[in-house]
Design goal:
By secondary structure, the protein is an alpha/beta fold. The chain is 34% helix and 25% strand. It folds into 2 domains: 119 residues, 3-Layer(aba) Sandwich (D-Maltodextrin-Binding Protein, domain 2); 95 residues, D-Maltodextrin-Binding Protein, domain 2, CATH 3.40.190. Helix 2 crosses helix 7. It comes from Magnetospirillum moscoviense.
Length: 242
């Protein structure tokens, strides 16, 4: 009897000392990719951050699902805690509800593409009075407020695809195309435009984002950041290592 009691007590103490299983989380991401024009077998954007998430969560022992949303809806589910994780540029709108990782895990560039005889864009004020192609679904790193201000007289052509934006540039229908470096590179590789040039508008660093409602959120995001810091992120994002 005494041995049974001791064995039971030992088992209970081991269970108490064992780490709790991490809660499952949902990773949400914008359904308009800033990384590529490619789509997967399901017709969804080929988001390279999904590959990074898979490695991180596997090493962290966290079960996860993923879903793309329009940007506005994505922010809503993160704010409400309905979804718990993302990888995004730092956004003041999430400061109250979410924690950010300390170091960026990826970066991209927003660039202005133009014909060689169009003036280089050195500041957003250079868009005033110009014809600009925009791709629907992007926030453009805060530039939309400047573009939408009637005082700046920016004439916009909003299109649904990267190809359509560059077709306008090729036909001299716009002065600038605002696009992200990855998709633009793919479009121009397939449909080159003679003498096209580009100017850096902003470099955008992407960080881990975790809802404060997730259990032990501070420790979990620190653990995910530590894992991300030691990974070969460039090769994972490129799909050359898993």
């Amino acid at each position: 009897m005494m041995l049974r009691v001791l064995a039971t007590a030992f088992t209970l103490s081991c269970l108490a000392a064992a780490p709790a299983l991490a809660a499952e989380l949902e990773y949400v991401y914008p359904d308009q990719s800033v990384w590529t024009t490619r789509v997967d077998a399901k017709g969804e954007p080929d988001n390279p951050l999904l590959r990074l998430a898979n490695v991180m969560f596997t090493q962290a022992g966290i079960k996860w699902t993923a879903r793309g949303y329009p940007a506005t809806r994505m922010f809503e589910v993160l704010k409400s805690g309905t979804a718990q994780f993302s990888m995004l540029v730092r956004a003041p709108a999430l400061a109250e509800c979410c924690l950010y990782g300390k170091n960026p895990v990826a970066s991209t560039e927003l660039r202005a593409y133009r014909q060689a005889d169009t003036a280089a864009l050195t500041a957003k004020e250079g868009l005033a009075g110009k014809r600009v192609a925009l791709i629907r679904g992007y926030s453009y790193a805060g530039l939309k407020d400047f573009i939408a201000d009637p005082a700046n007289a920016v004439r916009t052509e909003e299109v649904t695809s990267h190809d359509a934006a560059f077709a306008l540039l090729a036909r001299d229908r716009v002065d600038y195309v605002l696009d992200y470096a990855g998709p633009a590179r793919e479009v121009l590789a397939g449909h080159p435009i003679s003498r096209v040039q580009s100017d850096l508008v902003s470099r955008l660093d992407v960080y881990l984002v975790l809802s404060k409602t997730y259990p032990d959120a501070d420790a979990v995001i620190a653990r995910l950041q530590a894992i991300a810091d030691r990974l070969d992120k460039e090769r994972i994002l490129a799909g050359t290592v898993r």
